[in-house]
Amino acid sequence: MDHSSPAFDPPRDRLPTLYEVLARKTKPPVDLFSFYIYMRDQQRSVDYLDFWLDVSQHTSLCRHYVSELRRSILVETPELEKTGSTRSSYVLDHMGEMNDPAGPSTDLTSDEKVKDQNLSAFLRQENGNSNHSPQSSLGSQRSAMRPSGDRPFPAGERIPRPSFMSRNSPTRTDSGNSPAHTVARADIRASAEKILYTYLLPGSEREVMLPQGIIHDITRDIEEEGRDDPEVFDTAKDYTFQAMERDAFPGFLRAKALGNLVPPSLFLRLVFGLLALTAALWVGFTLIFLDAPKRTRAWFSSPNLTVLQEILPFTIGIYFLSSHQYHLDPILALVGLSEYTFFNFSRLEEPYVRKLLTKRALMVLFVTLFVGVCVIVLFIFVPGKRL
Hints:
Helix content: 55-70%
Radius of gyration: 29 Å
Shape: elongated
Distance between the termini: 75 Å
Mean pLDDT: 79
Low-confidence stretches: 1-5, 83-90, 129-150, 154-178
Order of helices and strands: HHHHHHHHHHHHEEHHEEH
């Protein structure tokens, strides 16, 4: 899969869709990397995203293979461009630009569906629908050696993964001016089998829960009919996309577009907030029952030290509790930071999300200031009574 930086769409005045996130058309904190971290750490269902990414990589692999084959045929036999003498050359010549594999097949236009159908038809025709033994398959032999999934980690945090398009697979270098093939036909077969044995078969290493009918159809297509074209996984890919869109993506938007903290930080703020508020109440009631002057209740002065006795602990406690309640640290939001793992931060680069978090940060600060002032004034100006 191509890891080059995608061309971002013009700034949108709305929250992104799951398709835009998976197509790498968004920026932090609602990019694919952040969604992967969310699925791994909070949703606990990263296998579904890994399955979707591997199927997308398989589709890209097939398209890359066919594109290379078309270029090779045109270089070796340029007369085919004029005569269209065979069915295979006709399919290759009329396949056009490949589609973006990020979205579900149900969202494709009629022209895009025709291109994908031509791609799968060509691969089925080339493969000859020959039977294939899973025990001696290339994918079953290599699945244990190859880490799974094309992970969306950015520079500096990407987990290295050998790609089907770059590993030391058998390559063909034809005579003359024919370009070398970086994708062999066996790589496509290995990719399809790796997906089947890793995610779909009962008891597999990272089994995903799909309807039994879908799993049965994919198993039959790969193991009995010898298919490895992208259409084999279309139903499973669409089902996974809809499941993530329904069950995971709304929570991701709430966590990243309306907040900027992860659960461990929220818990830490809750603990510190309760401790600070407990200390503030203890000091406040102690000074009231000691009938301390109002100035002494607000702060304690000594020749070498000035301590805000009630203002400081109340402010800290209310700030941390407000951050926990709204899942948002307003100071971090105002300086343009969002937490993706505990005490690891990324810049707010998505314009609409940054504007939204800035508004919410100002609201949280206003709530914190209002509640803090009310509580502090109450404890400072309430009449004291020495016990």
